[in-house]
Amino acid sequence: MKTSKLLCALLALCAALTLLTAAVAVPILCRPFYYAHIGPLKLEERTGLTEDEIKTAFNEMLDYCLGAEEFSTGVLKWSESGKAHFTDVRVLFLLDLRALGASLVLLAAVLLYARRSGRAPARPLGRGPAFWAGAGLGGAFLLVGGLAALDFDRAFVVFHALFFPGKDNWLFDPRVDQIINILPQEFFRSCAILILALLALGCAALILWDILRRKHPH
Q1: How many Cα atoms are found within 13 Å in the side-chain-facing hemisphere of 59?
Q2: What is the pLDDT of residues 119-157, one digit of tens each?
Q3: pTM for the whole thing?
Q4: Domains in the chain: boundaries
Q5: 181: Cβ contacts below 8 Å, ≥ 6 apart
């Protein structure tokens, strides 16, 4: 069977992109992950809101970020500047979800092509595309996660500077855009930890699968 380095690179890239976008999508789509923080972060005591009011405000904000036409935050006040930031957030959220769908389709298409063409991905240094996807993505985010762990506050600022260039409307006044009162930085730290943990597990699974497949090809 003929082997192809290009096929190996394409499969590794598709697998890495699928894993990355899926890991980012989990805290976006899994609302119970946020709900689980309400008690431990003492959001009711800190804001004077009930649990239902907090959930409603969060859900309405997230609905907008996932494509709903109307922006609202329950009983909480908001400004046009605050809404503009969440409009920017919506672009990023929807981009991630579309990229996840596209990477899954592309991965399936490349695998189908490989099967029908009778070609197999090359194995540079004796390792297949799953290994290189896991090792490459894992190495990159091990570095990013390590730097963020050293100074999360600084990493938080850098993140916003990269993804919202030239804008400062993410610096909310809690008296005007009260949604920030139920979105403390501790929650975003938890989101970052969850994403990195999912990436670590996914990368380890890809590497292990490649190693086991090499030992037991049939």
Answers
A1: 10
A2: 889 999 899 999 999 999 999 888 887 777 788 888 888
A3: 0.91
A4: 3-215
A5: 46, 47, 76, 174
